[in-house]
Structure formats: C-alpha cells, structure tokens
Amino acid sequence: MKFLIISGLSGAGKSKAAGILEDMNFYCVDNMPVVLIPKFAELCLATRGRYEYVALVTDIRGRESFEDLFRAMDEMQKMGCDSKILYIEASSDTIVKRYKETRRRHPLDQETGNVEDSIRREKELLSPIRERADYIIDTTDFTLSRLQSELYRLFSGKGERKNLDVSVTSFGYKYGIPTNSDLVFDVRFLPNPFYVAELAQLSGLDEPVHNYIFSYSQTKEFLKKLQDMVEYLIPFYIEEGKHSLVISIGCTGGRHRSVAIAEELGCFISSKGYSVKMRHRDIEKHAH
C-alpha cells in the first residue's frame, strides 16, 4: 500500500493536486488529523487491497507538530506501508495574486494581518516538512494541465503515464466526417480495391484487400509518415490534459482503404502502450 502525504503552501495547489490524484485512483482525504493517520492506515490495510493508493492532505490548518506527522509515517513504514511526502509550493508573488483573484483569506491572516506576512510565516512553519519531502513541485508557472502531467509522471508508476484513450475510426466521406473527430486523414488518393471485381464485396479487414492496398509503395510510405506524425503528436495532447483522442481515416465509402489503414494505425498506437478502440463506422454500407 502506498501513502502519499500532500503538504505545502496555502494557495500553491494542494487541492488541485489531490483532485488529479483522485482521477489517478488515489483515495484522497483532506486535512486528516495527524493522530488518526496510523489508525487510518490500519483500516486501509484491513480492506486487503481496496485502498492500494492513498493521498492525505495535511497543512498549516491542523496546527499540529510535524514531528507527530513524521512519527505517524514511521509507524506506517513499520506496518509495511510505503509513505512519501509531496510538497507543493509557488512564488510569493504568485500566491498573493491567486488570493487576490479568489478573494479568499489566508489561513494565517488573523495572526499576521496580510497575505505577504502570512506566506513568510507559513514558509517558516512548513520548513521541516519541506526538508523531508520526497517530491517538491513548484507551481509558479504551471497550468492545470501541466500540474496534471507532472503528477502523472511522478506517480503513475511508469514514468510519463500514457493517460490517453485513442479511438481510431474509419469512415466514408459520402456519409460525412465523424463529428467527434480530432484528427482527420483522407486516404482517397490510394488505389481503390472497389474497382477490382474479386475485392469489391470484401472489406479492409480481409487479407486480399489489405494485400492489394499495401502492394503499392505510396500506401507504405503514407502509413509510415502517418505513424510518425501521430506518435509525435500524442505526447503533446497528453501534456495539454486531453484524456481522449479520436483519429478518423476516410475513404469514399468507408469499406476498403480507410478500414485497412485504420487497422494498421490502431495496431501501431497500441504497440506504443496506449489504449486503443477501433471503430469501422461505415464498413457494412455499400462502398458506392
């Protein structure tokens, strides 16, 4: 079982980080009293895998000694829980700006009287936990999607998480372009098996049609360039926080060329570790 303690400066993005981790199947709890953490860990262990990844947000609101937190983490280690600390911070100017935009009060505002002094005091109070942190993220110049990408990189377990569901759809232009398409490629320039008598009633899923289409050098060259481009683009979609990508391949009727190319592209994307769904929208319709 893995426990991640999320701490850091108020306004730096702890809640947003917890929300993203929740999407990554972490069970998240905000501001749990430190004294309850070991008991909570015991309860999680008793579920036998139901809560495999847990994130606990703790910050200055609790006003508890971080020595108590460190003792709690040591107790969890003895139970066999892998516990780490994620510390989230941002520049003082950035935090001041965020508080002005949201018109919220800093948790230490009553003590200090203004946001700037509150931030300085909070940095002092949190210095022990920052020193012990396993991961430090500075969100000063981060968009939400960049924070998401960084958390996936750190905690997905596979480096940069390939958190993108790709749908590859073949279609016929005569029936219209799929309205949910993100990328559309026209393969009507390729030789058309429809005009070969023994292939007309088959589809791009049939080996004779596939062999015919890929017997031409332009098909092989196009597929290679298409694969290279899609492989290049996908990480940028992930970085921008996109969770799904629809790639549509079109020919005249959506039965031969688009199907064969879509199948090859889908297999290629799957081989790169992404989740791929295939759909041949118009394969059962007449080619012309």
Protein model, in words:
By secondary structure, the chain is of the alpha/beta class. It has two domains: 2-155, P-loop containing nucleotide triphosphate hydrolases (Rossmann fold), CATH 3.40.50.300; 165-280, no CATH class. 43% of the residues lie in helices and 19% in strands. It has helices at 14-23, 37-46, 66-79, 92-102, 109-112, 115-132, 144-155, 207-213, 217-239, 257-271; strands spanning 2-8, 27-30, 53-57, 82-89, 135-138, 165-172, 183-186, 244-251, 275-280. Helix 2 (37-46) links the parallel strand 2 and strand 3.
Distance between the termini: 58 Å
Could you list the spans in which at least 5 consecutive residues all have pLDDT below 50? none
Strand order of the largest sheet: 2-3-1-4-5
In round numbers, the mean pLDDT is 87
What characterizes the major β-sheet? Answer: 5 strands, parallel
> What percentage of the residues does DSSP assign to strands (E)?
15-25%
Helix content: 40-55%
CATH class of the largest domain: Alpha Beta
Structural class: alpha/beta
